[in-house]
Amino acid sequence: MFQGLTIEPLISPALWMTLAILSAALLIWYGRERVGTLSKRRWIWILSLTGLGMGAVLLILLNPIWVEPIAPPAGKPLLTILVDDSASMDIADAAEGQTRFQTATRMAEVLTQDLQSRFEVRVRKFAGQTAPTDLKELETITPEGNFTDLPGAITSSITDDRPQGQALFLLSDGIHNGPGGIESLLEVLRTTKAMAVPVYTKTLGGDLQLKDLELLLNRPQELSFAGQNVPVEVAVKQRGLVTDKATVSLLSEGKEIESQEVRLTADTTTNVRFNVKQKTAGLYRYEVRLKPLSQEATTANNSATLLLRVVQEPIRVLLLEGKPYWDGKFLMRTLAADPSLELDAVVKLSETRYLKRTLRLQPTSTSGKPDSAALDIRRTEASTIVSDPRALLNDAQQISQYQVIVLGRDSECFLSDTLVERLKNWVSRDGGSLVCYRGSPVASISQELAQMMPVRWSPTRESRFRMSLTDRGANLNWLVPSADRDQGQLDQLPSLTTHTRPERLKPLAVVLARSQSSAESDPVVMYQSYGTGRVVTIEGSGMWRWAFLAPQFQQLDEIYGSLWQSLLRWLVSSVGLVPGQDMVLRSEKVRYATDEPVSALLLMREDASRDAVPAVELTDSSGKTINTMTPVPLGDEPGVYQVLFGPLPEGSYRSFIKNKSGKTDQESVGIAFDVRPQFLENIEVAARPDIMSRIASESEGAVIEDPQPQKFAQEFQEHLSDALPLRTVRFSAWDRWWVLLFVVLIWGTAWGLRRSGGLV
Fold first, then answer.
1. Angle between helices 737-756 and 40-61 (to 10 degrees)
2. Residue 341 parent element (H or E)
3. Which one-letter DSSP state was computed for residue 609?
4. Cα–Cα distance between 328 and 449 in angstroms, integer?
């Protein structure tokens, strides 16, 4: 620690040097000739005291500061040892045949015993949640956590006020499959770095791959109209080599209706297609099942549930494009290929000419009988030129025929004040979905339109970015079944262009995708609920190139269509009241984890919500009533209620609305969902030293290959010396009474000698 004098001049160094030179010159000029009446000795004393007085003044102008260190706070630095007790830590691939958890326990014991004299050591265990523990308890624990939440473990282990310093020692295999993904982990590490809390890591385990079969569904919720064939795309993913063939079965309400044998190879994904069809409207549950094999790591992922919601009429979509671009052309082509959609597209050609393109589905009987289940869906197309596009949506009844309205760029020509007000009522009361697919739909958003948007935009210079799904977006399963869980294919797609930047998210906005090319990781796909409906915004132009890929990327060609078709089905399946419905239940997901709270939305029309809110009944797979819930209002919009079921045990469930008489209203559109245990910790068990290394580097810690207590203590002490600020006390060295007295005494003595010599 530094201790001593330092100077902080009251004037600039150049001015001080000028004064010093002038003072020396003046003293030399003054003393070059001694006055004859003075003795040589007296003259020397006068010059010496005068020079000393000048020097004292110059010294004061240098402002000497005395610096003394302050003793460090009493107490020891804090060391928190984090021990991972998730299920993957029970793999016996460590030294001497021990499990990863046993090795971590032994390391924690050695570190605690050797370092507790120098640090305050505490031990915590973590998986999905973090809790304090001790060495005796660790010896009795069997690791069985369903997932690993590294950000949560780090955040909950940091102490806000620890002036002595603190550090974390992470003993884990580095597998992170908790909420938030890698983005939340990096955000937490930025916080630890700012708080000077290093994270030291030790990776346990090796690159182990278990053998397993898994079923994946591209769209677990499908929508069709009565009599329509719906293709069901199923992907069978094999890790390692379990078998060269497998049987995939399709079941309806527990009964097998079709099965297919599929050929498999190691570490590949193979697609299987089924077709389903229902003649009447309603909610139908299908299950795709894979026959379990004894060589598999787990059988929890050998089945997937499909919910087919059948309506009497197809989805109606309106596309309004004020600035023609390739994005609109390819979007219309994709929507036109969807057999469950009807489309009206209005594109601005000039100030007075708008092209309206209409695509309709016409079911015709192939057997000659109009009530036959064998229907052939044919599409008819018509085009016309209109001069006033606002006349197409003159009244609320014209808007209510659509379930989804898509807005492109420069949509001012469509959005009059009257139409914006109708859109607000259509979204909030009728459960419509508004999609802005190229960023801000207008150059200047009115206050009325801004109320619906999940984000506010600010103009910026042109920038390019690539999209990355958040955990919330990935859980919606919008990509094709062959996509990996980390959605890595999006990195290989062409970048998008934007001239605006999301400036501020609304409090209830949900981010489904972020940009990868921006240091701020700006949101690019967002939505928020507005009344009984939703508003979705998608940033960036140039997405049409995703559907027009170079030959080397043809395997990704399905992503573009899959994203749009999945988005529209998600909007229509999870929100919205179709004509004739006064209330409906909606749920975002088909599959929940056993440790995840289950919830649903009850949507009611404004006139229906004036009556008493009906109860909601929850039943199991056998039809037995488990609970009857009372919905609670959600937000300020009328007609939107939340139903909280809470965590549920493993099983299949249905939920219905009770009518006014208290009976279950089976005719109402209810929901169905499954609750299954988490299985990722049982199949993705390869250690991740790359994640552990990044944790150490981002937090300014270190990777400890051989966790010797003395070596770690040295690392930690060096960090404390570099990171903790040196606390000192500073005070002026000349601002004392005796200094002032000394200066006055010098000048007074010099004046007295000169006076006694007759010079004054």
1. 150
2. strand 341-348
3. G
4. 22
Which residues on adjacent β-strands are paired with residue 203?
A: 172
Contacts of residue 564, Cβ cutoff 8 Å, sequence gap at least 6: 331, 334, 335
Q: For the chain, what is the largest distance between any 2 Cα atoms, rounded to a whole number of angstroms?
A: 144
Instruction: List the single range of 319-323, 519-523, 691-695 with lowest mean pLDDT.
Output: 519-523
Is the C-alpha dihedral spanning 139, 143, 144, 147 positive or negative? positive
Listed residue (454, 453, 486, 481) closest to 471, CA to CA: 486
Give yes or no for a contact between 474 and 487, defined as CB atoms under 8 angstroms apart. Answer: yes
Q: What six digits make up the tokens of 567?
A: 């988005």
Is-contact 540 438, C-beta < 8 A?
A: yes
Cβ atoms of residues 198 and 695 within 8 Å: no
Q: Are strands 130-133 and 120-126 parallel, antiparallel or unpaired?
A: antiparallel
Nearest-angstrom CA–CA distance, 24 and 21:
5
Q: CA 64 from chain center: how many Å?
A: 53
Nearest-angstrom CA–CA distance, 399 and 396: 5
> Strand, helix or coil at 468?
strand
CA dihedral sign of residues 216, 218, 220, 223: negative
Amino acid at residue number 329:
K
Alpha carbons 738 and 754: distance in angstroms, whole number = 24
**Using one digit for the tens of pLDDT, what is the confidence trace for 403-435?**
899 998 888 888 888 888 888 888 887 778 999
Structure tokens at 569: 């089905």
CA-to-CA dists, residue 749 to 45, 47, 623, angstroms = 10, 11, 110
Q: Count the Cβ atoms, other than its own, within 10 Å of residue 407.
A: 24
> Where in 576-633 does DSSP place strands (E)?
583-586, 591-593, 598-604, 616-620, 625-629, 632-633
Bridge partner residues of 379 (DSSP) = 361
User: φ and ψ at 299, to 5 degrees?
Assistant: -110, 5
pLDDT exceeds 70 at position 532: yes
Q: Are strands 64-69 and 728-732 parallel, antiparallel or unpaired?
A: antiparallel
Question: Coil, strand or helix: which one is 629?
Answer: strand
| pLDDT over 80 (residue 481) | no
Query: How far apart (Å, rounded) are the C-alpha atoms in residues 655 and 665?
Result: 10
**pTM for the model:** 0.66
Which region holds residue 262: left if phi is over 0, alpha if psi is between -120 and 50, else beta? beta
- Quick check: 517 and 468 in contact, CB under 8 A? no
pLDDT in tens, 122-181: 999 999 889 999 999 998 999 988 889 999 999 999 988 787 888 999 999 999 888 777
- DSSP code at position 114: H
CA-to-CA dists, residue 217 to 274, 304, 339, 611, angstroms: 11, 7, 19, 40
DSSP state of 352: S
Token pair 């299985």 is found at 679
Indicate the length of the chain as a whole number: 760
SS (H, E, C) 647-714: CCCCEEEEEEEECCCCCECCCCCCEEEEEECCCHHHHCCCCCHHHHHHHHHHCCCCECCCCCHHHHHH
How far from the centroid of its chain's Cα atoms is residue 315's Cα? Answer: 31
Residue 379 backbone dihedrals phi, psi, to 5 degrees: -110, 130
Q: What are phi and psi of 730, to 5 degrees?
A: -125, 135
Give all strands of the β-sheet with 616-620 in edge-to-edge order.
Answer: 591-593, 671-676, 651-657, 616-620, 625-629
Which residue type does 39 have? S
- Which residues, including other chains, have CB under 8 Å from residue 551's CB and lie 6 or more apart? none
Q: Which residue has the tokens 């015993």?
A: 113
Residues in CB range of 491: below 8 A, 6 or more apart:
466, 468, 516
Cα–Cα dist 438/288, whole Å? 37
